[in-house]
Design goal:
With 239 residues, the chain is α+β, with helices and mostly antiparallel strands. The chain is built from 5 helices and 11 strands, in the order βαββαββββαααββββ. The strands form 2 sheets. A 7-stranded mixed sheet has the order 1-2-3-7-6-5-4, with helices on both faces. The chain starts with a strand and ends in a 5-residue tail after the last strand. The structure holds biotin.
């Protein structure tokens, strides 16, 4: 493992993507920044994080062993890695909100942004970016955000938390390397927030509907049993 520590950067994901396009990057190269000026979230959102308090990390992983249609398994492995690392630090209850938000006490403690490098229609590498709120003490105007400190009252060493997440990530990626996709999927579904419970969703038109989350498909669609007993699959942009 090779760790690159930066003070301030626009985005660790952008940095690592550029670096890997310019030169050969070792498997499990980890970029960690004290602060980001243009932290990116899912679906074009921004990721804001107080400097020096939280983890802002991107990891380069060779995923050429995976078929492109199985790329959601990288997301499952990452969510499991973060949730298990949190549990190792006695943070609980921890759940994964599909597709890959990590919740502690039903509030968001971590977000994941995965960017895949694809060549000739083949998966090559994954840049796994995650923000994990560690020692931040409050979130202005973000009542649904939390941190490890806010859950436990403790102060954590960022490096220790980082190493724990990377160790867990390697563990789940190694399971995928053995081909045991079902194990990772079962574990992911067992961590899924509101799995098997009735939930209310909003579709693209803003229409509310209720359904029961049943799991995810191999390609990462959320499977929801809706009122008329039909299992429907939803993409991130759809609910
Ligand atoms: C989300 O929940 O929307 C995903 C947030 C991902 C944020 C992390 S912080 C480190 C890495 N670099 C980025 O620019 N984004 C990710």
């Amino acid at each position: 493992m090779h760790i690159i520590k930066l003070d301030a950067i626009d985005s660790t994901n952008t940095f690592l993507r550029h670096l890997s396009s310019e030169k050969t990057v070792e498997d499990y190269t980890v970029v960690v920044a004290n602060s980001q000026t243009k932290g990116r979230g899912q679906m074009g959102t921004v990721w804001n994080s107080q400097p020096n308090k939280n983890l802002m990390v991107s990891v380069f992983i060779d995923v050429s062993f995976l078929k492109i249609e199985n790329s959601f398994y990288i997301s499952m492995a990452t969510s499991l890695a973060i949730s298990n690392a949190l549990k190792a630090f006695q943070i609980k209850p921890v759940k994964v909100k599909w597709p890959n938000d990590i919740l502690a006490d039903q509030k968001k403690i971590s977000g994941v942004l995965i960017e895949n490098v694809i060549k000739n229609n083949q998966l090559q590498a994954s840049i796994i970016g995650f923000g994990l709120n560690v020692n931040q003490t409050y979130f202005e105007q973000l009542p649904s955000a939390t941190s490890m400190h806010m859950v436990s009252g403790k102060v954590y060493h960022l490096d220790e938390v980082l190493l724990s997440v990377i160790e867990q990530l390697r563990y789940y990626i190694d399971i995928l390397k053995t081909g045991d996709f079902q194990k990772v999927k079962d574990l992911y579904e067992s961590e899924l927030f509101r799995n098997n419970k009735p939930s209310t969703f909003k579709d693209v038109k803003g229409v509310l509907f209720t359904g029961i989350i049943k799991g995810v498909s191999n390609s990462g669609y959320l499977q929801v049993l809706i009122e008329d007993e039909i299992l429907k699959e939803f993409d991130l942009k759809e609910v």
